[in-house]
Write a structure and sequence with these properties.
- The structure is a single chain.
- By secondary structure, the chain is an all-alpha fold.
- Helix content is about 70%, strand content about 0%.
- Helix 1 packs across helix 3.
- The longest helix is centred in the C-terminal third of the chain and has 26 residues.
- The protein starts with a helix and ends with a helix.
Length: about 260
């Protein structure tokens, strides 16, 4: 393991701990800064050494140190999952100008996916500022590499995916929310920067994953035909798949067409 990947893992643990706060408070329109971390059951402040990512939860055996109430295992899973995603992103991009932008994408991917699963909503307070943050974080890459083609492709893909999802939401409002439309534009910016194959693979994978999970829920009778299913997590999962494997997938599909 390289120092960069190890550092990304540690950063991911810290960011993941903060994402737990984001996931809990943003849907409730609560401040991210005050009050400090507290037990959701007894409201007693969590001691700093009990708030160490993953380790604190394990040391307390998943229970509040004050009242003994069970603490969801989702907290350490979010922290560990963010760390792993940060490490994979660092391995994918290396020490490049693009790395901070895609680490930010990894962070909001975790937050938005869990929030959408919880409340079936992709908060504007995360999605909309992320357009500006993404642009600002990608600017150094443009300046360093003079890579105007990637920037232009990202903007075109952003407009294309936003328009595509807007059309779907307009034609079938019951199956696609406007939150998905706004997220689509952001993912288009990121995937378009990497290439058109990433845009195609990421978009197709999102629909495929959503369709497979929806079919599985219907088959197991855990959902009906009119049950609302959050689509954001599958869009984000498809984007992550494209981030790491778009070119192999595109090459494999291309080889099938030439046989």
């Amino acid at each position: 393991m390289t120092p960069l990947i190890a550092a990304a893992g540690v950063l991911g643990l810290v960011v993941g701990s903060f994402l737990n706060v984001v996931i809990h408070r943003v849907p409730r329109n609560e401040s991210l800064l005050r009050p400090g971390s507290r037990c959701p059951h007894c409201e007693v402040a969590i001691r700093p050494w009990h708030n160490v990512p993953v380790v604190g939860w394990l040391a307390l055996r998943g229970r509040c140190a004050h009242c003994g109430h069970r603490v969801s295992p989702r907290y350490p899973l979010v922290e560990a999952g963010t760390a792993l995603l940060f490490m994979a992103t660092a391995a994918r991009f290396g020490l490049t100008a693009e790395l901070p932008a895609y680490l930010y994408l990894a962070a909001i991917t975790v937050a938005l996916a869990v929030i959408d699963l919880d409340v079936h909503r992709l908060p504007n307070s995360i999605v909309l500022p992320s357009y500006v943050v993404a642009a600002l974080l990608l600017l150094p890459a443009v300046a360093a590499d003079r890579d105007w083609s990637s920037a232009g492709r990202g903007l075109l893909a952003m407009a294309a995916l936003w328009s595509f999802y807007f059309a779907l939401a307009w034609l079938y409002p019951g199956g696609m929310g406007f939150g998905d439309v706004k997220l689509a534009g952001l993912l288009g910016l990121y995937l378009g920067w990497l290439g058109w194959s990433s845009v195609v693979v990421g978009t197709f994978a999102g629909f495929m994953l959503g369709g497979l999970v929806g079919a599985l829920l219907l088959l197991t009778r855990r959902a009906g035909r009119k049950t609302a299913i959050a689509f954001g997590p599958y869009m984000l999962a498809g984007a992550m798949l494209a981030l790491f494997a778009a070119h192999p997938i595109a090459d494999w599909y291309g080889s099938l067409l030439t046989v």
